[in-house]
Write a structure and sequence with these properties.
Elements: H1 2-7, H2 11-31, H3 33-37, H4 63-97, H5 104-115, H6 119-130, H7 134-161, H8 164-171, H9 176-212, H10 224-233, H11 240-266, H12 287-293, E1 308-317, E2 324-334, E3 339-343, H13 350-357, E4 366-373, E5 376-377, H14 383-393, E6 394-397, H15 401-404, H16 411-422, H17 427-440, H18 446-449, H19 459-470, E7 477-481, H20 489-506, E8 509-514, H21 517-523, E9 526-531, E10 534-540, H22 550-557, E11 608-610, E12 613-615, H23 618-628
Parallel strand pairs: 3-8, 3-9, 6-7, 7-8
Antiparallel strand pairs: 1-2, 1-4, 4-5, 9-10, 10-12, 11-12
Length: about 625
């Protein structure tokens, strides 16, 4: 951390200047107050000399002494004004970002309106209302500076809110304020520090401007702005009387800007953890942690009901003249200990279904239908009950393992939070559980990894950490949303082996979302094939070699076959997935289907039982009816 600070540009300059300023603030008013305030009419308006290095003013007061003594008041008021700006700005920006999505734009436009007014004009206006003097100027500058900090804060919070690690925290049931303080602020702290440091620099300049305009510090007190005002009046007789406070203002503002950048770099763990060594293995697991690891938090009817039941699930986006369906009439059941695969091209609605189950749909999307987790209908639960159910019975592994973990928090903090919140155990026991789970997912040097940050791990290691995090409460359901997409083939196989071990050892239901039909077919008990927001076929692993729906057949045919000649071109599916706002009538696949008939263009085929599964295709169902007849 210290190395990161020292390597920042201008750090040495900033440290020296700030040290000199702090020393001056402490010593100068004690030692030089008499020279700065005492009148000496025998030495008025003198130029620089051995006794007075910067000369004297019209009343014979030493200009250098006045400049040094004014440092305490100038910087003190600047710090106070910046504190006001930071508190008001962080509260306003963070509060607006935490508003419900429906009314949040109103708050953002309100902040934008405030920023439209020039900061100095706002400071003068507020200062004039309160009254001329240091108090009014400080409050005015503080209020004026808060608008910019509020806009930066709201933008940073909103840009972080869609990250996977924030979604994961929401699944844990973390409340909004804790989400802001624990998960978002550490990741934007470096930017906020720079903004606040620039706020100090701006406050120094604005307070000087207020004093220059006669609205700031009033006699007999004096700050750099007042000295600048007096110096300008006699600039041609004694130019240093104006240049000295101007240079002090500029150097101080520049030093605090450099200092802010240095501190911001120290708050970014990626800059100072690269060479840190990993500690050796530690103690064995405690008995309480081992006992907790051996069981999952029970829920009502846990042993009788499937892990997940989805009935007539639809997701819509409000639109005129009619809402847009993202997914339509999705129904399936996942038994305890079963692994269900969901496949389809991008845009088919796979991730939307997963987000609907976890209640992570982005505004303004709305869900209709029934979702039951461990036999409990989530629509009938209170917010606290839902957070508890979701935090204990559902785990999610997202596609990008880097964005799934909070980059500003060490692994030990992220891994233990779930158990601490929902199982109400101590930090030590939660840490022992986390180490055991890391070993279970085959992460090497498990205890040593606990002190590391996500960026210090490889992609496969981060994905294993996500799985270990999901195991902390022994959930009934694990949703793996394309967990192998960003990994190479070897690591993909290792991750799938870990998922299968979890599924078999803990009888945990797993919903595996993937583009790779071959990967799903090798590992899942059943497969759901989705297209344009609907399930077009449900089939078992054994039936995958002979699918009924033309889309599933096309996906299967597009898989590379090493037994074929390398000169043979790969099979592809012509066309593309239709736009959700402009789906074709009838079967959505008919524009790309070589088997389409007239009925396919006008009527949506229902999902009918076939061969132990189901298929939604007029042609396939007609052929099956003919065979049975």
């Amino acid at each position: 951390m210290i190395r990161a600070i020292l390597k920042a540009p201008g750090t040495i300059f900033a440290l020296i200047v700030i040290a000199v300023l702090v020393g001056t603030m402490i010593v100068a008013p004690i030692v030089l107050n008499k020279d700065a305030t005492g009148l000496n009419f025998s030495a008025t308006s003198e130029g620089p000399n051995a006794m007075h290095w910067l000369g004297t003013d019209a009343l014979g007061r030493d200009l250098l002494a006045r400049l040094l003594v004014a440092t305490r008041l100038s910087l003190g008021l600047a710090f106070l004004a910046t504190l006001i700006s930071a508190v008001l700005g962080l509260l306003l920006g963070g509060g607006v970002a935490l508003l419900p999505a429906r009314i949040r734009p109103i708050g953002l436009r309100f902040i934008d309106t405030l920023i439209a007014f020039p900061a100095l004009i706002v400071a003068i206006f507020v200062g004039a209302i309160i009254g001329a003097g240091g108090k009014g100027a400080t409050i005015g500058v503080g209020v004026a500076g808060s608008f910019y900090i509020a806009r930066v804060m709201s933008a940073l919070v909103l840009s972080s809110a869609s990250r996977d690690y924030i979604l994961a925290a929401r699944i844990l049931g973390v409340r909004r304020m804790r989400l802001l303080l624990r998960n978002i602020l550490p990741n934007v702290a470096d930017v906020l520090v720079i903004v606040v440091a620039l706020g100090i620099a701006n406050s120094i300049v604005f307070l000087a401007a207020m004093s220059f305009l006669g609205l700031g510090v009033q006699s007999p007190q004096f700050d750099w702005g007042q000295l600048l005002t007096e110096g300008v009046q006699q600039f041609y007789q004694a130019p240093l009387s104006a240049l000295a406070p101007a240079i002090a203002i500029a150097i101080s503002a520049l030093a605090f800007g450099f200092a802010g950048e240095a501190v911001a770099k120290s708050l970014n763990p990626q800059l100072w953890t690269a060479m840190r060594s990993i500690k050796g293995p530690g103690a064995m697991l405690g008995t309480r942690a081992s006992k907790i690891l051996s069981q999952r938090i029970p829920t009502p009817s846990d042993e009788k009901e499937p892990a997940l039941e989805v009935s007539n699930l639809s997701v819509q986006i409000p639109n005129k003249p009619s809402p847009i369906d993202i997914v339509t009439d999705i129904s399936f059941v996942v038994a305890q200990g079963e692994m269900l695969g969901v496949v389809g091209e991008s845009g088919s609605g796979k991730t939307t279904v997963a987000n609907a189950i976890s209640q992570l749909l982005p505004y303004p999307a709305k869900m209709n239908g029934t979702v039951k987790i461990s036999g409990r209908d989530i629509s009938t639960l209170t917010k606290d009950e839902f957070n508890q159910l979701l935090g204990t019975n559902v785990a999610t592994v997202f596609q990008d393992p880097m964005s799934s973990l909070n980059p500003a928090l060490r692994l030990d903090i992220q891994l233990t939070e779930r158990a601490e919140v929902h199982q109400h155990i101590g930090r030590r026991q939660a840490r022992e559980m986390a180490i055991a789970n890391l070993k279970e997912v085959n992460l090497p040097a498990a205890e040593g990894q606990m002190r590391r940050y996500p960026h210090e791990l490889s992609g496969g290691m981060r994905q294993r950490v996500m799985m270990a995090m999901g195991l902390m409460t022994r959930p009934a359901l694990l949703i793996a949303d394309e967990p192998t997409t960003a990994l190479d083939v070897t690591i993909q196989a290792q991750i799938m082996d870990v998922l299968k071990e979890i599924n078999q050892q803990h009888k945990m239901a797993i919903v595996l979302i993937s583009h790779n039909l071959d990967l799903v077919g090798q590992n899942c008990d059943r497969i759901l094939v989705m297209y344009a927001g609907r399930i077009v076929e449900e089939l078992s692993r054994e039936a995958l070699s002979q699918p009924l729906h033309p889309y599933t057949q096309a996906l299967l045919g597009a898989l590379p076959d090493i037994s074929e000649s390398p000169d043979q071109p790969l099979v592809s599916i012509g066309g593309q997935v239709p736009d959700i706002s402009n789906r074709p009538s009838g079967c959505a696949f008919h524009p790309r289907c070589p088997m389409a008939v007239e009925r396919c263009t006008t009527e949506v085929p229902p999902l009918l039982p076939r061969r132990g599964g189901a298929v939604a295709c007029w042609v396939a169902n007609k052929d099956a009816d003919n065979e049975s007849a």
